[in-house]
TrEMBL record:
Top EC class, one word: hydrolase
GO MF terms held by the record: ATP binding; hydrolase activity; RNA binding; RNA helicase activity
PANTHER family, per database record: ATP-DEPENDENT RNA HELICASE DBP3
Catalyzed reaction equations: ATP + H2O = ADP + phosphate + H(+)
InterPro entries with a match to the protein in the record: DEAD/DEAH_box_helicase_dom, Helicase_ATP-bd, Helicase_C-like, P-loop_NTPase, RNA-helicase_DEAD-box_CS, RNA_helicase_DEAD_Q_motif
Protein name (Swiss-Prot/TrEMBL): RNA helicase
Pfam families for this protein: DEAD, Helicase_C
Taxonomy of the source species: Eukaryota, Metazoa, Chordata, Craniata, Vertebrata
Stretches for region Disordered: 1-43, 480-504
Gene name linked to the record: DDX5
Domain Helicase C-terminal: 331-478
Family membership: Belongs to the DEAD box helicase family.
Segments of skewed composition (Basic and acidic residues): 1-14, 491-504
Length: 504
């Protein structure tokens, strides 16, 4: 494949850049940019609000649709139970089971209609009425649950009810996200739905030139989607402000905390009036996230979709191959030969380190595989380019570090291969969640070596929860460590035998 190789070589020269936050490679937890900001937000002063002086604003726009009002409580209860939705908190409105019940403006409904979706996802069904009623909320839902629209569509309604932006005003809706990839995806959705309503949005993230982002901000945007570091930078430099911000979204809050963004988030939130509406989204609910909710939200309602314990999407077939490090390449080759003979074959291969990602990419391309690599040391421009090549199928194999493990939403990824097992079962769940997006199915293959032994019990718990067959060698490993691996679901289900077979 000379075309690929030439391009790749040219791009290789750009690899030497300093690691950035959001990289997630090297097996580390990413982390905020070290040194770049010194003490981030040092120059930002905590605001002291005099509520009597602040202009009043509206945040409750919810009018229950008659179809929702008429729906018998039993039907509502059955719906919530069947969708595994639980609600905690007072005065939570009833869910809306159909799109028309949300009373979104026509231009929003037109975009929804074009998607051909059957109904709101559970997080939308319960999240929309809550968000529209102006309440603070926490949404705990898996990746791919439809949460972006769960907060963006009510944001559009919120903005439409506020006075127009004036010269020098900052955004009305601020979405904080952990990575550039997620921020860009959210902005794509914001742009798609905002276009018809003439709402402007900007995506503010590090690793890209500041000029265009500043120009957009200065032109006036209703919606700003930002990673914390770059936003702090702009706030300190006075390039934007949060005086008009009344709708705050923290997306993937757990991930932001994992990456060490807590100080930045706190600095940013200090700049926003306390009577704002705050919506926090997270895949998990550990005590650090709960603390954030306690500090930032008022009398909030919490929606959980699925088990509170982070669990894998049940539409994914999970296959674990217990092997040695030296066997991985051979196994990968056999696996890819099989996968590439399938009609739908888009595949992400996860490695632990950036170096391994580069090595594997180089070797595979040398052998003619249509593979491209992505990790946190690559320039933003290159990451965008690689993602597009992958998205549009020009390179159906993406080799990635954990930079791509969360948030990445490429609809037709059919396979995920964990060439290296990740740091935690949580990361495992996020990685394999790149396949089986929006009700589709997918397959995840995982190479699990004796070096990963201490993670065996956690992985078994994830597999059990998702009713997956469990490789006996994995059980043995957990038992050898004195884990809880034994017993339970030991045998392979018949329909899975063949596929498991190739990995034995
Ligand atoms: P998210 O969790 O926001 O990343 O969304 C995951 C995927 O679900 C995206 O590809 C959306 O386009 C898709 N999606 C959003 N809402 C719905 C819906 N009501 N029905 C089916 N798919 C949806």
């Amino acid at each position: 494949m000379p075309g690929f190789s030439d391009r790749d070589r040219g791009r290789d020269r750009g690899y030497g850049a300093a690691p950035r936050f959001g990289g997630g490679g090297g097996g580390s937890r990413g982390g905020p940019p070290q040194g770049k900001f010194g003490n981030p937000g040092e120059r930002l002063r905590k605001k002291h609000w005099n509520m009597d002086e602040l202009p009043k604003f509206e945040k409750n726009f919810y009018q229950e649709h008659p179809d929702v009002t008429r729906r018998p409580p039993q039907e509502v209860e059955n719906y919530l139970r069947s969708k595994d939705v639980t609600v905690k908190g007072r005065d939570c409105p009833k869910p809306m089971m159909k799109f028309h019940e949300a009373n979104f403006p026509n231009y929003v409904m037109d975009v929804i209609a074009k998607q051909g979706w059957a109904e709101p996802t559970p997080i939308q069904a319960q999240g929309w009425p809550l968000a529209l009623s102006g309440k603070d909320m926490v949404g705990i839902a898996q990746t791919g649950s439809g949460k972006t629209l769960a907060y963006l569509l009510p944001a559009i309604v919120h903005i439409q009810h506020q006075p127009f932006l004036e010269h020098g005003d900052g955004p009305i809706c601020l979405v904080l996200a952990p990575t550039r990839e997620l921020a860009q995806q959210v902005q794509q959705v914001a742009a798609e739905y905002g276009r018809a309503s003439r709402l402007k949005s900007v995506c503010v993230y590090g690793g890209a030139p500041k000029g265009p982002q500043i120009r957009d901000l200065e032109r006036g945007v209703e919606i700003c989607i930002a990673t914390p570091g770059r936003l702090i930078d702009f706030l300190e430099a006075g390039k934007t402000n949060l005086r008009r911000c009344t709708y705050l979204v923290l997306d993937e809050a757990d991930r932001m905390l994992d990456m060490g963004f807590e100080p930045q988030i706190r600095k940013i939130v200090d700049q926003i009036r306390p009577d704002r509406q705050t919506l926090m989204w997270s895949a998990t609910w550990p005590k650090e996230v709960r603390q954030l909710a306690e500090d930032f939200l008022k009398q909030y309602v919490q929606i959980n979709v699925g088990a509170l314990q982070l669990s894998a999407n049940h539409n994914i077939l999970q296959i674990v191959d217990v092997c040695n490090d030296g066997e991985k390449d051979d196994k990968l080759l056999r696996l890819l030969e099989e996968i590439m003979s399938e009609k739908e074959n888009k595949t992400i291969i996860f490695t632990e380190t950036k170096r391994r990602c580069d090595e594997l990419t180089r070797r595979m391309r040398r052998d003619g595989w249509p593979a491209m690599g992505i990790h946190g040391d690559k320039s933003q421009q290159e990451r965008d380019w690689v993602l597009n090549e992958f998205k549009y199928g020009k390179a159906p194999i993406l080799i990635a570090t954990d930079v791509a493990s969360r948030g990445l939403d490429v609809e037709d990824v059919k396979f995920v291969i964990n060439y290296d097992y990740p740091n935690s079962s949580e990361d495992y769940i996020h990685r394999i969640g790149r396949t089986a997006r929006s009700q589709k199915t997918g397959t995840a293959y995982t190479f699990f070596t004796p070096n990963n032994m201490k993670q065996a019990s956690d992985l078994i718990a994830v597999l059990r929860e998702a009713n997956q067959a469990i490789n006996p060698k994995l059980l043995q490993m957990a038992e050898a460590r004195g884990g809880r691996g034994g017993g339970g679901r030991g045998g392979f289900r018949d329909d899975r035998r063949d596929r498991v077979g190739i990995l034995q």
